[in-house]
Amino acid sequence: MNSALRHEYLAALGVETWVMRGKSMPASPPREAMALREVAALRETAAARESGVDWPELRARVAACTRCTLCSTRTHTVFGVGSQQAEWLVVGEAPGADEDRQGEPFVGRAGQLLNSMLRAIGLAREQVYIANVLKCRPPGNRDPTAIEASECLPYLEQQIALLKPKIMLAVGRIAAQNLLHTDVTLGRLRQQVHRFGVSQVPLVATYHPAYLLRTPTDKRKAWEDLKFARDVCARV
Ligand code: SF4
Question: Which of 43, 103, 115, 137 has the greatest number of beta carbons closer than 10 A?
Answer without folding.
Answer: 137
